[in-house]
Amino acid sequence: MAVLPTVTFAKPGSALSGTVVVFTNEEFRFGPQAGALRLQRVVERAAAAADFKGKPRSTLDMLAPPVESADRLLVVGLAKGADKAPSHDWLKLGGAVIAKLRRGHPATVLLEQPDGKPVPAEAAADFCLGAALRAYTFDKYKSNGGDDEESEQGKESPPALTVLVDDPAKAKRAWTSRLAAAGGVYLARDLVNEPANVLGPVEYAERVKELESLGVEVTIFTEKDLRKLGMGAYLGVAQGSSRPPRMVMMRWNGGKAKEKPVALIGKGVVFDTGGISIKPAAGMEDMKGDMGGSAAVVGAIATLASRKAKVNALGIVGLVENMPDANAQRPGDILTSMAGITIEVNNTDAEGRLVLCDLLHYVEKEYQPRVMIDLATLTGAIIVALGHHYAGFYATDDKLAANLSAAGEATGERVWRMPLGPEYDKQIRSRFADIKNSSGREGASITAAQFLKRFVKETPWAHIDIAGTAIASPATDVNKSWGSGYGVRLLDRLIADTYEG
Ligand code: BES
Ligand code: ZN
Ligand code: MN
Asked: Residue 250: which of 223, 229, 219, 222 has the closest Cα?
């Protein structure tokens, strides 16, 4: 597991060492901390030489600056009104700054606004979270530890940050909950990046079991248990793999004893070949990440537990491998789901909904949760619709939808609402069974959601299709990892703002 950077908060005036980071603006102003270093002239000369204009998030790098005990000075542009900037701007700034620092080398950040206004504690903590998210690496299979061009981050541990802010104690408190979130994201990324030969359903379940050290109750269901529960749809997917499925239930009980849980449900297809309806070879390796929904759920539960969230949360993941095999299900097979709804499998590659439908029914029936939210790398169609910058979501409840959108904007893990509607039911009618699992190209993410909705009765429910955001992620200021860990911070934020307390 990649190590999180160490972050220490201290008062302005504390000792400086390593790279010193200061902030300026387009007028080359400096706050009191940076001002005390008397660098105005030398920075202006260096800025002119490097054509640095102080634009937000741009940087000027100066070696051997005239500051005692500092070997490097990093001047960073900061926008006006940063104290009122959204949380996500501070994340991006932290990411942009740590990207310029040397790994294995300490840095001291004089965190203040160039106009002299202090940086709020929450913003300081967001800055550090952005830095932590950006510093993640996955180099465990590099014999050289990652010291090559492919893994640009190198093998050293991330820079240790000392952040000088007005109220270090308050910043530290704000950082504690974000450190928990960073840990959850690291865990989710590790799970998604891990190849399927290493992380089969059994191995994955064992890793989830480790959450017990955080106080999470973990229950593992074997194939026999799933059969007893009557999860015929989930088992239909499992039967093509020589590696048996595992359903894993995680419970974090941080709320009142009688309080109904918030339920998080994740698609955990450790590898999706498509089954007998096999996928084309090109890009199939990406399907090791078809458990991204489950990773978000595991990461979110880990986050809630490590920050001791005052909420009862239940996470459940359907771990399974979708393989073609002599024993695999065939197109045309008819499965009986736990809900009793029969499903014609006209495409074995539409396997995610077969797993989720049994989980949704089970969770609603057994736990009557306050809300159910499932996450899944469910359809290629959502990538066609939204690309890689928004996940698509569906909701049966407008309040839940609004809260999810707000959490998306706050964290930068953005979501865009898509429609549900009885008109789409026609596309999943089956000649032989109650419904079929695939319905052609038109609105293919919507019909997948409409399929899932058939398995939800009363509970407010949202389905988030993260096929475009969880894997093969474009590099951003806060993420360089192939598996982005998308969803962990979104869920954590939604729960903190809506269900906690
Ligand atoms: N896991 C895939 C969806 C996917 C595609 C995730 C690309 C990430 C990147 C899913 O199981 C799948 O194969 N969906 C099919 C559904 C179709 C057969 C109805 C799809 O989207 O093509
Ligand atoms: Zn899949
Ligand atoms: Mn598939």
From this structure: 219
pLDDT at residue 155 tops 80: no
* Residue from 345, 349, 435, 464 whose mutation best tests the ligand 1 pocket (most atoms within 8 A of CB): 349
Residue nearest to atom 7 of ligand 1 (CA): 380
Q: Is the pLDDT of residue 295 over 70?
A: yes
Nearest CA to ligand 1 atom 22: 380
Q: Kindly identify the ligand whose nearest atom is closest to the C-alpha of 440.
A: 1
Helices (H) and strands (E) in the chain, counts: 14, 17
Judged by its nearest atom, the ligand closest to the C-alpha of residue 292 is 1
C-alpha of residue 177 to centroid of ligand 3, in Å: 36
The residue written with tokens 């955001």 in the block is 469
Handedness of CA 485, 486, 487, 493 (dihedral sign): positive
CA distance 246 to 268: 9
**233 CA from centroid of ligand 3 (Å):** 14
3-state secondary structure of 210: helix
Whether 489 is catalytic: no
Q: How many CB atoms lie within 10 A of CB 207?
A: 15
Contact of 354 with 450, CB cutoff 8 Å: no
Verify whether residue 29 is a known catalytic residue.
Answer: no
The pair of structure tokens assigned to 411 is 């964290």
CA distance 112 to 143: 41
Quote the tokens at residue 484: 């982005």
Considering only the C-alpha atoms of the chain, give the largest distance between any 2 of them, rounded to a whole number of Å.
80
Q: Considering every ligand atom, which ligand is closest to the CA of 324?
A: 3
Residue in 155, 207, 279, 308 annotated catalytic: 279
Is residue 349 within 6 Å of ligand 1 at its C-beta? yes
Cα gap 305→303, rounded to integer Å: 5
- pLDDT at residue 150 in the model: 64
Ligand 2 center from residue 134 Cα (angstroms): 28
Question: Is the model's pTM score more than 0.90?
Answer: yes
C-alpha–C-alpha distance, residues 257 and 422, integer Å: 38
pLDDT tens figures, 206-246: 999 999 999 999 999 999 999 999 999 999 999 999 999 99
> Which amino acid would we find at residue 437?
N
**Residue 152 reports pLDDT greater than 60:** no
Model pLDDT for residues 74-116, shown as the tens digit of each residue = 999 999 999 899 999 999 999 999 999 999 999 999 999 999 9
